[in-house]
Amino acid sequence: MRRLAMPILSLALLAAAALPDMSGAQEAVISTRSAAFDDRDPVDFGRHAPHRYPVHGIDVARYQGTIDWSRAARAGVNFAFIKATEGGDMLDSHFAQNWHQAGRAGVLRGAYHFYYFCTDAATQAKWFIRNVPRHKGALPPVLDMEWNHMSPTCQKRPAGSVVRSEMKIFLDRLERHYGQRPVVYTTPQFYRDAGLHHMKHEEFWLRSVAKTLDHVYPKQRWSFWQYSGTGIVSGINGDVDLNAFAGSRQSWAKWVRQRQQ
Question: Quick count: other Cβ atoms within 10 Å of Cβ 249?
Answer without folding.
Answer: 20
